[in-house]
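Subject: Protein record for review, amino acid sequence with backbone structure tokens
Category: Structural biology, sequence-to-fold work with a learned token vocabulary.
Format: Residues in single-letter code; tokens as whole numbers, each standing for a residue.
Body of memo: The sequence and its backbone structure tokens, given next.
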Amino acid sequence: MTKCIIRFLVVSIFFLPAIISAQIKKIGVPFITNYNPKTYKAASENWDVLQDSKGMMFFANHFGIMQFDGVRWNIVTQPENKSMVRSLAIDKNDRIYVGAQCDFGYTFQLPNGQYKYTSLVKLLPVSSRNFGDVLHTVVRNNEVIFFSNEKIFIYKNNKIKVIESTSNFDEFFNVGTSIYVLDNRKGLLKLKDDVLIPVEKGQQFLGMKIRKAFATKDGLMLLTQKNGLFIYKNNLIKPFVTEADYLLKQYQITTAILFPDGYLGIGTRQSGLIVIDSTGHLIQHINKQMGLQNEYVTNLKTDKEGNLWVTLKEGISLIQISSPLSRILDTSSSETKIYCSQIYQNKLYIATDNGLFWMDWQAYKNGKRENTHFQHISGMSENVWNVGVFGKSLLAFEKNGIYEIKGNSAQLLAKTDGAWQGINIPNRPDLLLVGGYNGMHLLKKINDSWVYQHKIKGFQESSRIIVTDNESIWLAHGYKGIFKIKLNKTFDAVSDLQFYNQESGFPSSLFLNTFKINNQILFGTTKGIYKQDKTSKKMIPDAVFKKYLGLENHIRLLKADNQNNFWYVSGENTGKMTRQTNGNFTVEELPFRKLRYLYVPGFENIQTTTNGDVFFGTQDGLIHYNATKNKSYQAKYKAIISEVKCILPKDSLLFSSRYDVLPNNIKLDKNELTPVLSHSNNALHFSFASLCYDEADATKYEYWLEGFEEKWSDWSLQTEKEYTNLPENEYIFHVRAKNIYDVVSEEAIFKFEISPPWYRTSWAYILYLLLFGVLIYAIIKYQKNLAERDREQLILNQEKELLRNRAELNEQKLALEQQNMAIMRENLEATINLKNAKVASSTVNLIHLNEILLSIKELIGQIDKKNDTNVNFSLLTKINRLIDHELQGDQHWNEFEEIFNQLHDNFMQRLKTSFPELTPRDMRLCAYLRMNFNTKEIAPLLGISVRGVEDTRYRIRKKLQLSSDANITEFILNF
């Protein structure tokens, strides 16, 4: 036990800076964000909560492990038996160990975002698999301990050791480096070397129903279910009395958490969250009336930003205990829009749209809140615009007039056409100027009471904003400009009025305001703070405020506190300018970023007190600021990509942590996280978030799709982005967040690649190249063929033209030839006729000669040979021989044949070639037949008889192979 105390002191010293600077606020109720089952769409019951190294939140839900990324809720996995999850733990590698009903195991995230659950029950022997809920899961060094009422399972080196109880365990405590177990029969036990060892006098813990234990400087603090708190030290147990005992004993303790600042947060079954300090003083009691959505607290855990997560029987709540801002709430929750606040005689007054309320501020600050609540001031039930202390009186300015507050009631001082506010006239503390809806009114203090005097004449404008200097009254009209007014000596009428607007030097005539800072009149404009130049009387920017607040924002409020620091509302930001010893200022805005959009527009109000309390009146109630509580606003956090899906086919997921949504065929290797998508999947939808839970709804995002966009987008509240018709390329989607404190998160990226369509792939381009080559070749071939056809056509045309020309020429030539032929024919016919005549003449002469010779021969033949002498016979024989020679001589025939062939197309040679067996005599006969001579005419020419001609014709017929009925003369003429 001494070792535990020493460890606790060491830890306390280590966390001492955090303890000093991170105490939970006692004043007001921290901001609470509630998440109900309709929001996270899962079971209402939640039992445990943890945060991984990235900052992601996980919850043990009845439906499984539920994840929250600041924007979206998802069930990411379930035990194998689909039972409820009761406990969670996480190791340094972000492996989450899960305790469920009749099951336990672990889960881790895959590259595709999915969480894979692995049950460890299979490592148990069959005899040890019967157990109930695993209520606690603890990761310690290199082992994991799973606790159920029946058994304790120690998982180490992929083996499980089982520790069983004969009478069931009651509770399990992880205190520092020690593990304690409460056994229903043996009392308090300590787990050491995987064995339960009884603690000395551990039997005294039987029946205490201890629900949590912590090591403190005073010993081991024990929190029991119904009997309050105890301290165990030196083997003795003694009660630890607290201011909340009446709550703790009545509403049953369920869980607890020890904050770094030494405060103890206690969850109850029926009364929400109770926070006490180390001495037992009640610091906070946050129940359903204070904004917690359910009274049954099941677990408490803090995140990296110091916020407290509360799991409930119904829902989850986030309590921002690290914020210096808190809400002044009470059990009545009667206040609504707050236009002003004021502390007077230890009472806090708030002016609202439902009247004026008050509460005992001193009691509220001291933690006595059970019976402390806002009470209504009777007599006013409409808009109360302002409340202030004037002399010893508290006055309220309402829609129906001016009231003085006395006790719990309001006394009407003057019924006017509406009263905005009151202000003392300089150097006349007995006179009060009241701005009304249509001009100004005057009240005078008579016998310590304010008495209405009259309405100021000469001015009828709405007078909501009024300040004064030693000489004049400055009045701001938000839609017209600034009025500078002087009253007459009797303070019943306006003696001088000057008007200033954009023409006087203001950047605009709209939304002008006026403030009194250090006895100087300043003006709030849409472009910073202005003042009046004493020489030119023109409105110019104030140099000091220009340096710190710039000239870009609308200054809606400027107010000094009692330490001469300046509070302002500039644009959407609220800030504080703190004066340094050297006269300069430091500007602080980050603690007040939660106030964005909470003010009632045009009625921004900040109330400061001498005790350091600062109140902000908003449309969400009264908010308190404690300057002594510091919060780190520069904490690093991560942006994440929650989900990536292809729009077509519909909702085809690529990356998601949602349980069982990715198809089995989408798998990414651990070393390759770049999915390659087909071109048909070129429309993608990205969902993203930031793991900063402080005002998560106000976190802004910017994104950039590298490979498609040239630069980052503008900051916006958009948490989704869709891209369609992305061309083929390698892409990287970048996203980063900026929280309400203007801290930019670490960047999240998602790489992917879109393949080209099949018609734009490399193979397609090769095909296109080949087709292009073929096309070029075809074109060239076609052009070549076309040129060839053109050439051929040209040649053909030329040939046709040539042929036509030739034809014409031939026609001309033919005509000429025909003429020549006609002439030649005529000449030839003349020649033929001449030759025929010659031949005929020769032939006739020859025939005649031959006839004469034949006659002579016959006569000689008739000479009697016997009577003749030998000389005469010899002479006659010679004559006869000479005549035969002449008859059979070739000289005349050769001449005849030459002329005949010329006339008859070389007839003799053709006939000889066709019929080589013809003799010369046969040839001559054929020639005479060709000349159409009859037998009688041929006989003399051949020197034979007519009979001899007939015989010769017969022989020739055979040689010509003519039939008997064929006409040889006709054949010869046609040959």
